[in-house]
Design goal:
binds asparagine; metal-binding; protease; hydrolase; about 20% strand; binds calcium ion; about 325 residues; 6-stranded mixed sheet; 8 helices; 5-stranded mixed sheet; globular; Neutral Protease, domain 2; alpha+beta; EC 3.4.24.-; binds zinc ion; signal
Amino acid sequence: REAIETGSGTSTYSGTVPVTTTKTSSGYSLTDGERGGHKTYDLKQGTSGTGTLFTNSSDVWGAARQAAAVDAHYGAAVTWDFYKNVLGRSGIKGDGVGAYSRVHYGNGYVNAFWDDDCFCMTYGDGENNANPLTSLDVAAHEMTHGVTSATAGLNYSGESGGLNEATSDIFGTASEFYAKNSTDAGDYLIGEKIDINGDGTPLRYMDKPSKDGASKDYWSSNLGNSDVHYSSGPANHFFYLLSEGSGAKTINGVSYNSPTYNNSKVTGIGRDKATKIWYKALTTYFTSTTNYKAARAGTLKATADLYGSTSTEYKTVAAAWTAINVK
Ligand code: ASN
Ligand code: ZN
Ligand code: CA
């Protein structure tokens, strides 16, 4: 087996970060031997195949097209560590096996995605190839699609699709906080680093999802007709309320103000407990057809398992669902 090394990378969005690499006969490659052999490849603007494994003569990374690769490799490592150290899960399938990342997909491609078939995540370079979609929360969002697929298998349409998307935003956000990266501090915003709107605003807001102009804050009977990236809104809002509570709050310099459906006041139980509850529900009680009503029931069961059915945590989970109009 080849030697596992710790290199240093200059990323696009997360400053200078450690990258776990592997020594080769002529240098190093972006192969993470500490995390299931996760590799990072260069698609060189192509849209198919695996691409070319990133290699370098030294273990200092970040020149030119390596920067996006550093983000992707670091993002996958942080997400791996989040699942392992916070949730006790070893890899996407829980079997210790790594996936792989492909960067520089297509030309001016403004998206990133997980694909079950390749068991890999892929990143475009954004408009004019100027802003790769490789920020930490996006990487963790995409990798979490693999976890959801390997566990609850939430169907990617209707209300279950919204819950699938929310699961990626929830653990994407939890991973970003977990990283404690000083350049990309944790927040309840999605895609705040990649300037996808061209005006510096994030893609999504968990404290008040409707701030993006399309996402829903609350459940309603027609929620399942919305695009899954908008029907995720109420569940993202639930997670924010459960973690931080309703009303105004500033965290890591970002100000939030989270409303409730019934103008009730919710007092948060903290992100760590909310994260454990969502994960236990996802892996124990959610199925491919779980809708919002069933998600309420599943998270309550998970909370009873973890903290008891007379606990403050249990009461707060119930209150947070009621606050997004799921009763
Ligand atoms: N970036 C998007 C996502 O992960 C890709 C998609 O629409 N599935 O949700
Ligand atoms: Zn997604
Ligand atoms: Ca974020």
